[in-house]
Design goal:
The chain has a domain of 246 residues: Metal-dependent hydrolases (TIM Barrel), CATH 3.20.20.140. A hairpin with a 5-residue loop joins strand 18 and strand 19. Helix 1 crosses helix 6. The chain has 392 residues and is α+β, with helices and mostly antiparallel strands. The longest helix has 33 residues.
């Protein structure tokens, strides 16, 4: 090939590349423009009243593969209005006390890289002994149990790193149903249909860009309901925050909440860090804690009636009633999966068979363009459905 011909091909290639870049920038610009019309929150704020403690679960710092120090994470949490953060750096087994940083409670947990996938542990009463990194998944789960901690299956159905130890899955108390990091990784695998709209929207309104990544699939909830048939499971929404997207934007988009207990009083975190950490851990494992995609609205006032809140159990034939937060009327629906059936009133759930049922509130939220898309809003733990009570 003559030099002139080679340069001609190079020129064509550069022009094609430049055309593609301009096309992508133009497409992203369209989503940026559309984001300026996205209105949050979708559900109006409730009248003034007690606010539930809220925080981030599953957060990484520079102690492992995160992009921020603990102090920077605390600053981002404070700016987002959070009260606590459960830090879970990879294989960081150094025992450390909980501490308030800039008014935000930092609680130390750990994400263990086992041979079967990742296992999050928090609320440990004793240090984890031995070398756990790379350990068999069942042995790691047992080690967390011996240390008095709570074991949570991290992103258990994620394409990149799912959980692969069935017996340990049956023993673990917690299950990450929704994961911000998993949403992001899923978008990366679909760069044009999902990542590009989110990046373009992020340039115009950062929280909207993060919310466009929220695309649930059936895999996690199917696995959750399968496991919840055997014993009650704790659902946690994981930020799995590494700094991309930014900590503050992810903290603004979703959080774990600690609703009132049996006395109806909203929990108040003590000023002592250790006592406050104990209250948070107790709240997260109580069965009452719930996740909310708070960019869509705050969850105060949400109640799932007709179920033992602590045990998360009910019986075939029982009817559960969803009490939505004040102001949550239009653009909200109750989503039911598993052993329940939504009645025509839209808020009553009849339990029709043994197994487990997942009841969530979903919101018609701003979509990628100028339309809308249904997204999860308030996510409690599942209810185990037992055989019909003999008293009936």
């Amino acid at each position: 090939m003559k030099p002139s011909s080679a340069w001609a091909w190079v020129g064509k290639g550069l022009r094609a590349l430049m055309g593609l870049v301009l096309l992508l920038l133009g497409s992203a610009g369209f989503f940026t423009f559309a984001a300026s019309y996205a209105d949050y929150p979708v559900v109006p704020p409730a009248p003034e009243g007690p606010r539930w403690p809220r925080g981030a679960f599953h957060v990484h710092t520079t102690r492992s593969d995160g992009r921020a120090t603990e102090a920077e994470v605390a600053a981002a949490a404070k700016a987002a209005g959070l009260h606590f953060v459960v830090l879970t750096d990879h294989n960081d087994f150094t025992p450390r006390e909980p501490v308030f940083v800039d008014g935000v409670l930092l609680i130390q947990g750990v994400e263990i890289s086992t041979a079967a996938g990742h296992l999050v542990a928090f609320g440990l009463e004793h240090p984890l002994g031995g070398e756990l990194k790379g350990m068999d998944g069942g042995e790691a789960q047992a080690a967390v149990e011996r240390a008095g901690g709570v074991s949570v299956l991290a992103h258990p159905v994620q394409a990149r790193n799912p959980w692969r130890h069935e017996e340990a899955a049956r023993q673990a108390e917690g299950f990450e149903l929704y994961s911000a990091d998993t949403f992001f990784r899923s978008a990366v695998r679909r760069p044009f249909s999902r990542l590009l709209p989110a990046v373009g929207a992020w340039l115009g309104q950062r929280v909207h860009g993060v919310m466009l990544l929220v695309e649930p699939d059936e895999g996690p909830v199917t696995k959750l309901l399968e496991l919840a048939r055997e014993k009650p499971r704790l659902v946690l929404c994981a930020h799995d925050a590494h700094g991309l997207p930014g900590y503050e934007e992810v903290f603004q988009s979703l959080a774990m909440y600690l609703p009132p207990g049996e006395d109806g009083a909203a929990p108040v975190l003590p000023g002592d860090a250790r006592a406050a950490a104990e209250a948070v851990v107790k709240g997260l494992v109580s069965g009452r804690a719930l996740c909310a995609f708070r960019a869509l609205g705050e969850p105060e006032g949400f109640v799932l009636e007709g179920v033992d809140a602590e045990r998360r159990e009910a019986h075939v034939g029982d009817v559960l009633t969803v009490r939505l937060p004040p102001g949550a009327r239009e653009h909200v629906r109750v989503e039911v999966r598993g052993a329940g059936r939504l009645r025509p009133d839209g808020v009553s759930v009849e339990l029709v068979e043994e197994g487990a049922v997942q009841v969530e509130a979903w919101v018609e939220a701003p979509g990628r363009f100028f339309g809308s898309q249904w997204r999860p809003w308030i996510v409690p733990s599942p209810v185990r459905v037992l055989a019909r009570s003999v008293e009936r």
